[in-house]
Amino acid sequence: KGNVVEPWQILNKQGADAFRWYLFTVSSPWYPRRFFEEAIDEVVRKFLLTLWNTYSFFVVYANIDSFDPTVQKVAVPERPLLDRWIIASLQQLVERVRNGLDNYEVTASGRHIQEFVDDLSNWYVRRSRRRFWKSEEDDDKLSAYLTLHECLVTVSKLLAPYTPFISEEIYRNIVCSTDGDAPVSVHLSDFPEVSESLRDEDLLFQMEQVRRVINLGRAARNKAAIKTRQPLAEAVVVATSEERKAIEELAHLVLDELNVKEINFVADVKQLADLKLKPNLQKLGPRFGARRPQVDAAIAAMDPEHILSVIEAQGQIGISVDGREELLSSDEILVDEVEKEGYSVERQAGRAVGIKIAISDDLLREGRARELVHKVQNLRKEAGFEIEDTIAVNMSGAVILVEVSREFRQFFMAETLCRDMTYAAQAPAGAFSETIVIDGERVMVSISRLGSIKDI
Predict the structure, then answer these.
(1) Phi and psi dihedrals of 340, rounded to 5?
(2) Which of 47, 103, 221, 446 could form a cystine bridge with 394, CB 3.0-4.6 A?
(3) Cβ 138 vs Cβ 22: under 8 Å
(4) pLDDT band at 456, cuts 50/70/90?
(5) Which pLDDT score is estimated for 105?
(6) Alpha helices for 28-163 (secondary structure H)
(7) How far, in Å, CA of 324 to CA of 321, rounded?
(8) Would you say residue 192 has pLDDT above 70?
(9) Which of 58, 73, 67, 52 is nearest to 178 (CA)?
(10) pLDDT of residue 386
(11) How far apart are CA 212 and CA 75, in angstroms?
(12) CB-based contacts of 450: which residues, under 8 Å, 6+ apart?
C-alpha cells in the first residue's frame, strides 16, 4: 500500500546510528511521529558529520605530530582559557546527560550532546585551528591536543547508548590505540562522571556573554552586507557593568571574531539607535474600530524600550484603553529603528551591538589581503595538497593586489604555509595556477609543493 518504510532501506543507506539518533532526538521515542527518509539525511548532516569531521580533524593532526595522550600531559588549570572553558562545558554536559538518562529523558539528553558537539566544532576547534597548525611543540599546542582528545573520548562514552557504532570507532581509535590498559570497548567503559574541580560557572558566563556579542555583531555585519574578512574599525556593545567586565576579559575573541580593531561599550541602546513605535493599522483598525485613536495614544505614551523588552520576553503587552486593559501581540506594534549614522546595529532583548561601517583605505587593503589568503587556501585544496604541505607562491597581474601581498607578506605566508614568494611574469613549470579576482582586479597565482611542515 506504500505506507511502510522498509527498515533495511534506511539502515543500508544511512546506517543504524543515524536512524537511532533520529528516533531518540527528534522527539521522545514513545510519541508517534511522521517519518520520511530525508529527515535522516538532515540528522546525518547536522550532527553525525559534524562529530565525524571534528574527530577526523583531531586524527589528522595527532598523526602529524605523533601525539600520545598517555605520555604528554598538561594539567587543566594550566591550560589556556579556551581549553578550560570547553572542559567546564563538558562537565556541565556530563551532569545534564546523567540526570536526563536517570530520569529517562533521552531526547533532552541527546539534544544536550548535539549542542555540545556543535560548540566543540564550530567554536572550540575553529578558534584553536592555528594552535594545531603551528610547528612549535609547546604547551599551548599540547593543551589543545589534550583538551580535544578528552572531549572526544567523553563524548564517545556519552553517545554509546545512542550511537553504539560511531562511538566504538572513535573510542577504539583514539583510546585503545595508545592506552593498552584501557577497556577494549567503549561499551565496557565506565559512564562519565562530573569532575567538580573542573567546573567553572564564572567562565561559562563570560563565554556566554562574549558569544552573544559576537552573534549580534555578525548579524549587524550581515545587515550591512559587509564580508567577515573585511576588517572594520569599531564595534560598540550595549552591556551592563557585569556583562562588560566579562566581555572585556575576553575582548580578544570579540575583536578577532568580528574582525574589528576596537571594542567600546555603552550602557544604553539609545546611544546606538532610536526606537519609534507605531500601531499596525491593518491589525488594530479592524480589531478596535472607533477606539483605535485611543490605542494609538496609549502606544505613543509608553516607553518604546519598555514595550519592546516586554514583547520580546512575553510575546505581548498590556495597555490601558478607556480604563480597560487590552493585550497587544508583537505583530500589532510596528518598530522603526533609526540607527546612529555610520553604524549597523543589531539588537536582542535589550542588548545591542553596533558595527562602524565606514572602511578606510588601510582597512580596505587589509581586507583584500585576507581575501587573497582565502583564495590561495582554496587553491591548495584544488591542487590536492595535504594540510601539512608547505608551498611556494608566484604572483603576477594587478598591481594593487601584488602590492597588497607585499604589504601583508608575513601574514600571507604564515596563513598559507608559504615558504617562498616570488613575482615573476612567467609561472614556474609544473605549478598549479589559477586567475584570482578580488574587487574586479585579476592576478595569476601559481602554487608549488615544497615539503611538509613536519620538516621544519
Answers:
(1) -60, 135
(2) 446
(3) no
(4) low
(5) 92
(6) 37-43, 49-64, 81-102, 106-119, 126-133, 139-159
(7) 5
(8) yes
(9) 67
(10) 86
(11) 29
(12) 389, 390, 391, 392, 419, 420
